[in-house]
Here is the input.
Amino acid sequence: MPKLVRGMRLLNQADPCAEVLIQETGEHVLVTAGEVHLQRCLDDLRERFAKIEISASKPIIPFRETVIRPPKVDMVNEDLGKQQKVCV
Here is the structure.
């Protein structure tokens, strides 16, 4: 376990986009910018920083949705033969 903690500290220093969290359950969580970034970070932990075998679960990908206001400007594109007209 000390090798894993040391490796995660080194990864966190080497890659500022990678965030390491330790849950109340003792689980070590690696937060990255995407699946490809996660795979690269796990490879770095295994081969460069911790140099131990790591067992990782499938990635948990959060679904985020937001509500935005409708635009104040209504744009309509109309095709007028060879000319394009944009009304604002």
